[in-house]
Design a protein that fits this description.
The structure is a homotrimer of 351-residue chains.
Chain A lengths: L2 H8 L2 E3 L8 E2 L9 E4 L8 H4 L4 E4 L11 E4 L3 H12 L8 E2 L4 E2 L4 E2 L4 E2 L4 E2 L4 E2 L4 E2 L4 E2 L4 E2 L4 E2 L4 E2 L4 E2 L4 E2 L4 E5 L3 E3 L5 E3 L5 E4 L4 E2 L4 E4 L4 E4 L4 E2 L4 E2 L4 E2 L4 E2 L4 E2 L4 E2 L4 E2 L4 E2 L4 E2 L4 E2 L4 E2 L8 E3 L4 E2 H11 L2 H30 L1
Parallel strand pairs in A: 2-3, 3-4, 4-5, 6-9, 7-10, 8-11, 9-12, 10-13, 11-14, 12-15, 13-16, 15-18, 16-19, 17-22, 18-23, 19-24, 22-25, 23-26, 24-27, 25-28, 26-29, 27-30, 28-31, 29-32, 30-33, 31-34, 32-35, 33-36, 35-37
Antiparallel strand pairs in A: 1-5, 20-21, 37-38
Chain lengths: 351, 351, 351
């Protein structure tokens, strides 16, 4: 595709030779002739002098060096970069059809142009929407329903009666609908399993990462709302509600029945206790441990979680705690000396 | 089932119309006519006025509102709720039989009424106990032995020679018997793998969560004792012993050779170092990091772990550390002033 | 094998009866006649009096008790122990051949003596090196290349175009080449997926643990370098570079584009933020949270990470923070009293 065509597709202004052929999208450090790359941050502008890329996505105001690459100018180069990848990178999806080795229940309902890979299992009464792709080794439980245009990578478990919307992407090894961790202690100290047979609903445009686990509850439902994106190795416990457009980075864990409202961002390894409400737009930095509900719009850090600003300040003091303690010890010595001197002083002043 | 029949099954006292038909068990907020629900905590008693449920499990002493639902009275409503789910919720287990697509070694021994799902692999010399269910895509290694009445969900790995007792439940994607992480550094700095071929034993009534990993050791054994319940994405390293009735919440990690005694409770994301002993009944709150052995009966928190009570108090001071530091700075100023004044004072007192 | 033969194989000096037959390698506590065991730490020398082992690997200078076991003396008993396991423990690897139930693309290239287990899937154009073993249920994506002598355990996903070197070991359920977690927020607040189709390279002699996930990036590559060893349930995000001989314990997480240099050791549950450089030989203790780049050779701990020595000292003060605060309060009282007295003192001294 010529750079001119690409500029039109991406709604960018072209500054330079529009006839150059763009073959690849890449990072600026590894770029070669034929590549489109991007500078999201003006501080990397110096790369324009040295890059071998044929074209670079930049914000307005960046000036093109003599003999430098062509520029594609737009307000959000990173967004355009993502779009360029969608245009130029060959999709890896297999074509429609049912592999001969798949085991599909006779009463499963498959939409148009569904792609069922090798050794996929589709249980009784399951429904697969149009153009949905199931990669090899995936197991769809009885009565599960998947919408249209889903991409389910290899070796995923979608358990019985789980419901997926449209355009849901699930990475390899994820488990959706496993039994919630619910037990009740009996008189003899042993744990009675509380049967976990209620619903899991994954709404449209959700992405779920590799080896992530999403449990089903005993009653009620677990729900991941529209447009939420969940990274690898995340735990979503039974009865949790994850809000629209929420982002969970890898290894986040959410305990049972917690409600995460929309547009929340949890960085890597954050843990949230059960039965809480995490308000709209809350941001938790990596490894934050959240024992209580959090008001909307708050940025939190620490274990237990406190406002990020306070945590940064307290952490700065923490690393100097031994020095602070020493200052207290010194104060105690100085004050003891003063007390002694004052005792010595007062009688003489009375004399 | 009528409410009267259910009351008898659950050993509850019936207060209200016993002829009402109970169809479902649900949470109190979503209850509808035909539903049984519960109130475990008297503070939720107000729900009795508004719920649409036909019947509610309550503790003695709760009074039934006029026109309110029927009550089932018992000492432990939550336990009765779990039992009611077991009575009323249709089991999801497939019937006995070996799916034609399963690959079963000729010398594997299968008990009575075993259920082998699609695309299950059973290795040479493996033994599967009576009525055990293997969901699709599970791989049972050579020489592994599973007891009776186990439920092994989809895509589980039970590696060579692993032993499972009776009534063990394993959720999707779990791995039992993977190689322990054992290497020894050689003279050239590279790591020589220590072969990990020893035993893993999972005793009766254990539950293991989705995508959890339980490693085998080089020598000795890894053992999960009777009635322990392990949640999703948990790491149990080589040579660990997990005590009876222990509970591990999601994303817990136990390093090699540690002994966890009976009735321990580790909340989510707790980490325990290797070669330790965690005493009977220890409770660790979420994200606790345990670098040393812990005495029986202790409740711990923090990183590194300290008694929970101390941690709560220290954490309260932590969030105000900048203020504490400021007070120390002020003290230093005041004491400097005092020292100066006293210097000024003393000569005059001597005068 | 006789002890004398084993001594020669392990390059150890023999002290005792070389004709005894060694059948097993085991830990010292469970040793029985016919067993070889080891004492790596002289503080366990007392076990020599009581062990039932036939022979014990020890460092020079350990003296053999009367009627004690034979000794194999060498500088690094633990290394010799690992080597002895390699000699004496029967390998669990299946023989070469392609199971009839495997689904192998016609254009896949398989080397000599490859072992393809039951229900393995090998995609179009994939290459499998000589003597590599694929356990049941593993899925190799189109265009993936595996070197020689790899061992890929059950139910692994190796995604499209991923490259593995020689002697790579992958434990069950691991996912290599899943989509990186890359999204860009659009004007309406929704997240546009950045297509993740670039490369993942796993070099020679790497080991990857059970249910670990290694993501592919949008551009550039994710690379695990020669001899790195990665434990279970680890997250390696898109574009990360993991250095030679690096060790990651279980549940470590590395965010996108971070460079981990050679010989780094990250203990369990450590988290590292994105776009950082972790210098050669850095050691992070368990649960460390790393928000910034770290200089080579540093040992770090804490959240946020600080030098280990500082963290130990600060943590010691942390657990006594309430007492420290009390001391500050007492100082404030004493200083207030002093100020008062001095006020009282000075007029009289002027009198």
């Amino acid at each position: 595709m010529t750079l001119r065509e690409l500029a039109e597709r991406l709604h960018c202004r072209l500054d330079g030779d529009g006839e150059v052929e763009i073959l690849r999208v890449t990072g600026i450090e590894h770029a070669a002739p034929g590549d489109l790359t991007f500078i999201a941050n003006p501080k990397y502008q110096g790369f324009l002098e040295t890059t071998r890329a044929s074209a670079v996505l930049v914000t307005p105001g960046v000036s093109r060096p003599a003999n430098g690459p062509a520029l594609l100018v737009c307000d959000r180069p990173y967004l355009a970069f993502a779009q360029a990848l969608g245009v130029l990178v060959r999709a890896a999806l297999p074509g429609p059809g049912i592999d001969a080795s798949a085991v599909v229940a006779p009463d499963a309902r498959l939409g148009d142009a569904v792609s069922v890979g090798a050794l996929v299992v589709i249980g009784a009464g399951a429904t697969i929407g149009d153009r949905t792709v199931l990669f090899p080794g995936t197991v769809i439980g009885p009565g599960a329903t998947l919408g249209a245009d889903c991409v389910i990578h290899a070796r995923v478990s979608i358990r019985e009666r789980v419901q997926l919307g449209n355009r849901v992407v699930v990475q390899d090894g994820a488990v959706i609908g496993s039994d919630g961790f619910g037990f009740v202690r009996q008189a003899d100290g042993s744990h009675l399993k509380i049967p976990q047979h209620a619903d899991v609903v994954i709404e449209d445009d959700v992405e779920i990462g590799a080896n992530t686990a999403i449990d089903r509850p005993a009653v009620g439902e677990t729900r991941i709302r529209r447009g939420a994106k969940i990274d690898n190795l995340v735990q979503v416990a039974h009865g949790v509600s994850v809000g629209e457009r929420t982002l969970f980075a890898a290894q986040v864990g959410i305990a049972g029945s917690t409600v995460v409202e929309e547009d929340v961002v949890l960085a890597g390894q954050v843990g949230v206790a059960g039965h809480l409400r995490i308000g709209k737009g809350v941001v938790a930095t990596a490894q934050t441990g959240v024992p209580n509900s959090v008001d909307a719009g708050t940025m939190i850090s620490g274990y237990p979680a406190i406002p990020n600003r306070d945590w940064l300040k307290s952490s700065a003091v923490f690393r100097n705690l031994p020095a602070l303690k020493k200052r207290v010890v010194e104060l105690e010595q100085r004050i003891a000396e003063l007390e002694e001197k004052l005792e010595a002083c007062r009688p003489s002043s009375e004399g």
